[in-house]
Amino acid sequence: MGITPQTASVAIAALVAKGLVHKVPDASDRRASSLKLTRQGEVAARVAAQWPDFLLAAVQELDPAERKLFLRILIKLIRRLQTDGQIVPQRLCVTCVHFQPNAHPSNPAGPHHCAYVDMPFGDTDLRIDCPEHRGASPEVANANWSIFVRAAQAAKN
Q1: What would the DSSP string read from start to end of 114-156?
Q2: Inter-axis angle of helices 64-83 and 138-156, to 10 degrees?
Q3: Where are the extended beta strands (E) located within 26-135?
Q4: Do 153 and 93 form a contact (C-beta atoms < 8 A)?
Q5: How many Cβ atoms are within 10 Å of 123's Cβ, its own excluded?
Q6: Measured distance CA(77)–CA(106) in Å, rounded
Q7: Which domains does the chain carry?
Q8: In the chain, which residues have pLDDT < 50?
Q9: Which of these, 61, 84, 144, 150, is most buried using a 10 Å CB contact count?
């Protein structure tokens, strides 16, 4: 899951305190326990499971240019939260060893290049959680980020 045991412990304590889960001791290992949803937790889980649907419906209302901008903003927010240590790293194109930002500047529909598939692609194809992701070194990721941001600024002007 990409979280520390301490973070998991704090999260579990918060869920227990809110009445969303309760601990069930393990009969064979006194140090272990499992978590079980309470009725309140089951309701909260059902509600949480539906949020992607209504968010997706809202995003579908955006025109293509707005979706492209929204994705760029989302990637920028996620990257900032990652670099600040607020969230665990995600498998973003912009942090991948295969990502070549603005490699095809004369191709507005596909200015970037993915070396993994050896193809150009555009902002609307940027991934937030790519299964083929391989993390670039911090130096390469930062250099790619700078190129990515500069290209976006140039496109706005």
Answers
A1: ETTTTEEE-GGG--SS-TT--BPPHHHHHHHHHHHHHHHHHHH
A2: 150
A3: 33-37, 99-100, 112-114, 119-121
A4: no
A5: 21
A6: 27
A7: 1-60 (1.10.10.10), 62-157 (no CATH)
A8: none
A9: 144
